[in-house]
Amino acid sequence: MKDTSDVTILAIESSCDETAAAVVKNGREVCSNVISSQIALHTLYGGVVPELASRKHIEKINQVITQALEEADVTLDDIDAVGVTYGPGLVGALLVGVAEAKAICWARSIPLVGVHHIEGHISANYIAHKDLEPPFACLVVSGGHTHLVVVRDYGDYEIIGKTRDDAAGEAFDKVARAIGLGYPGGPKIDKAAREGNADAIRFPRAKVGDSVYDFSFSGLKSAVLNYLNDARMKGQEISVPDVAASFQKAVVDVLTDHAMHAVDEYGFKTFALAGGVASNSALRASMEKACSARGVRLCCPPPILCTDNAAMIGAAAYYDYRRGIRSDLTLNAVPGLKLGER
Amino acid sequence: MKILALDSSGMAATVAIAGDDRLLAEFTVNYKKTHSQTLLPMLSQAADMIELDLKTIDAVAVAGGPGSFTGLRIGSATAKGIGLALEKPLVHVPTLEALAWNFWGCQDLICPMMDARREEVYCGIYTFEEGRLRVIADQEALPVRKLAERLNAMGKKVILLGDGSKVHEALLRELLTAPALFAPAHLREQRASSVAACAMEYIRAGKTESAADHRPTYLRVSQAERERALREQAKKEKE
What we know:
The structure holds two protein chains of two kinds. Chain A is built from eleven helices and ten strands. By secondary structure, chain A is α/β, with parallel strands linked by helices. Chain A folds into two domains: 8-124 and 306-322, 2-Layer Sandwich (Nucleotidyltransferase, domain 5); 134-301, Nucleotidyltransferase, domain 5, CATH 3.30.420.40. In chain A, the strands form two sheets. A five-stranded mixed beta sheet of chain A has the order 3-2-1-4-5, with helices on both faces. A five-stranded mixed beta sheet of chain A has the order 8-7-6-9-10, with helices on both faces. In chain A, α2 runs parallel beside α3 (91-108) and α5 (168-178) runs parallel beside α7 (218-233). The longest helix of chain A has 27 residues, at 240-266. By secondary structure, chain B is an alpha/beta fold. In chain B, 40% of the residues lie in helices and 27% in strands. A five-stranded mixed beta sheet of chain B has the order 3-2-1-4-5, with helices on both faces. A five-stranded mixed beta sheet of chain B has the order 8-7-6-9-10. In chain B, a hairpin with a 5-residue loop joins β1 (2-7) and β2. The chains are: A alpha/beta, B alpha/beta. Chains A and B meet through α2 and α3 of A and α1, α2 and α9 of B.
């Protein structure tokens, strides 16, 4: 007999270049977490091509969902709700997951919960740290987002800082391209930086005038590009590991500095990292050091839950589901969806 | 046999539920709202009206392209989701063939076309012989001028339909020497009942596919692929 108090959620994520589905029990237990990555395809173009991403999603989505159900050893009969990312992200990509989820829910009379992608990233921490409960502060850093968020309660967020221009991960991608490391930039810079001297070049740490929490990375990116141009004009040799390490340190310094400012001001005892850039080894090390100096607990999901995945959507959907949130058949993809809005 | 049919390839969103010898329900909306918000609620309402037990459905038919890339994917993902949930096969109906079914039985040429931008249309040329659809020119993307030349060369009476016939009406009237009729609004655009009728023939011929395998037919590569191919070609020529 199925425990009636258990809530089993099938989650679907297709907001960018990963087609993903997962089965998650009670928001914390991952029964399956299937990700079909398109990285190899987009590498040919040096970045994510929205139309190609959408085409790949539709080719893979049923297989990914079926695999997630099989690996969890469940059928749709066991599913209490379907959670699906409906924003933010690439509209054409999001629409595939949203249309698929709605159709499944309609055909089988299963409740539907539309989930915010960033809420998913934050909720990955609930899976990785079973005892973690709000309130806490969270730094969400990925290819599309750089948010400093106060998690007041489940589903209750306050964004205290965000990027004014490029996302941190975007800066990684652009710099990686400029120094010939290619796509995806994050892991490649992380790797190259290990061989380099992070103090070799002093890149700027941008302050956003009227906010201690907002970020700006386009100036840093330009500084790197200027440095490269300058060196090339002067015929100086460029050390890729040094540039990678110095650039990475500039990003990590700013992220850590802002995060700790929030910790000091709000007095949080727990700080969480989330998003693809949370896998960056230098960021983890820097945050670990800063948090431990303050006696603050640092939470960070393993890389498989930092990258775009559906398990995190299942975790977020569970807490939305518990609060009675349901989406109807008119649910649409909202590419610019704001955190905390529906 | 009972099938669900849907088409969101063009301006209209349209759904139908059809039995062997009866069109049970059809719902077509040609309004500004996005197909993402309308298609499934329409299907749900149509099903409710006829107290449809979804278990009694034999297949899900979808206009599989060409058409608006996003529109096609909304229809495909909806059909794939239903197919997965009900464990039913899909029928991939070529969009322009389904449009030709709006003029079932017509022995003149039938030329459905959808605006494909860049002065092109997705088009095909069909006719009915003894009530059976015959494909004279399979669906493809063509410049409007080329299509007009082709129809003129055939020199036969032709019925033009599809949103492309409206968008390019002035140019077509100027170019066409073959006798042509422009379809009126009620027959011009996609109708899921036509998708269903066409799908019945496909099912009888054993042409179904699994929901997992289904993917739309775009008839065009993406812009990024096109540009990359041009770059690669330029590189080759340089070498």
